[in-house]
Fold this protein.
Amino acid sequence: MKLEQIQKALREQQLDGWLFYDHHHRDSIAYRILGLSDSLHVSRRWYYLIPAEGEPRKLTHRVESGKLATLPGSGQLYSSWQELEAGLRTMLEPYTKLAMQYSPRNAIMYVSLVDAGTLEVLRELGKTIVSSADLVSRFEAVLTSDQIASHYEAQQHIDEIVTAAWKHIAARLRPPRQTNGSGAAPLKEYEVMVWLQEAMRRAGIADGYGPNVSVNANSSDSHYEPTAANSKEIKQGDFLLLDIWGRMDRPGTCFYDITWTGVVGREPSERERQVFSVVAQARDAAIKTVQQAFATEQPLAGWQADDAARAVIREAGFAEYFTHRTGHSISTETHGNGANLDNLETHDDRLILPYTCFSVEPGIYLPEFGVRSEINMLTEPGHAKVTGPIQTELVRI
């Protein structure tokens, strides 16, 4: 646990403390930030207060009095609910404004983990509870230098795999030399997905992540997952989308997550070119917004970058076909706990912080095909950059 850094952040945000609470592992964020084992058996409520100044405080049940023993600070014990509430009153008596894993109106649901009843008790004690969302970003989404290096390691491997995938698909679809009248077996989405998984495994990328391979109408399902049972055949003339993500197979590494689109055995239609162009312009508008904000050291919230991309798609007349946020936080999880580029599904007012990573991935999903162009960005003080290649036209396979 980074106690000194947390207390410094609390003082900067003019908060009296950060109150952590859990029961039956409801709050996984608390375990990560406090450095508690996620295998800890917890059947009773516990509370842990990090004040802006001074020693942390604990409140645990007598049956599980040692659950927070690894954390610094003094402790109180309770058995009855009356004793619990009295213990909370004593524990929190000097403090008024407290951060918790809470979001007003559930606006940022990723950190809205404290139940309404607990909030009622704390408000009855005269406490003002504010969202810990920006604190969580600071201590969950900010990457170390090793994690940043691991992102680039995954980027190099995955980009090489995608390049090889286009060639593999083209080779599989090439008309075979027939000597006995039999043709090659159909190439299906699922087969390409397995090929990509095996290529990632050989490159040292952790198992268990996608990818998404989808043709034609399936490419308009942004969370489509091909299976052996439902997989569609990839044929000459098809529209194809590849969405691939992964991290190096070591603890604590950072993901790389991209999406490319192309056409098989032909030139793109005018409609496909138009849709791709609009998506690429929306992507580039979000990239520019982030880069300008960091270059001029202006604070930027996730919703603002989403607005920049969404405006391009809206002005082109495709607003109803852009059905998800522009981007998501990326860290040791594919979807991390930093700011998302979102003013659609949520109004994400978390700040995009230095040394964080996130995707930029606008999309337009028509009934017959869907285009998404996804890149990743990394930020640092005064600078923000795209970490891999940027698609500028549809791939010809």
Q: What stands out?
A: The longest helix spans residues 145-173. The chain has two domains: 3-140, 142-175+182-396. The mean pLDDT is 95.
